Amino acid sequence: MDLFGEFPELGRGDLRDFKKAIDAGFRSFSRAYGDELEAFFDPLLQFMIWFERLLINSPWPIILVVLAGLAWLGSRSWKLVTGSVICFAIIGYFGMWENTMATLAIISVATFICIGLGIPLGIWMAKSNRVQAIITPILDVMQTIPSFVYLIPVVMLLGIGKVPGLIAVCIYAVPPIVRLTNLGIRLVDEEVLEAADAFGANYKQRLWGVQIPLALPNIFAGVNQTIMMALAMVVIASMIGVRGLGVPVLQAVSNQYLALGLMNGLAIVAIAIIFDRISQKYGQRLQAYRKGNGNG
Amino acid sequence: MADNKIEIRNLYKVFGDNPKTKMQHVHAGVSKQELLDQHGHVLGLRDINIKVRSKRIQVIMGLSGSGKSTLIRHINRLIEPTEGEVIVDGEDVLSMSTEGLRDFRRHKASMVFQRFGLLPHRTVTQNVAYGLTIQGIGEGEAGERSQRWIDRVGLSGFEQHFPAQLSGGMQQRVGLARALATDAEILLMDEAFSALDPLIRTDMQNILLDLQEELHKTIVFITHDLDEALRIGDEIAILRDGEVIQQGDPQSIIMRPADDYIADFIKDINRGRVLEVRSVMEKMTRATGPKMSTTTPLEDALQQLLNAGKDSGAVVGDNGKTLGRISMKNAIAAMARPDRDEEGPRYK
Question: How distant is the Cα of B103 from the closest Cα of chain A, in angstroms?
Answer without folding.
Answer: 7
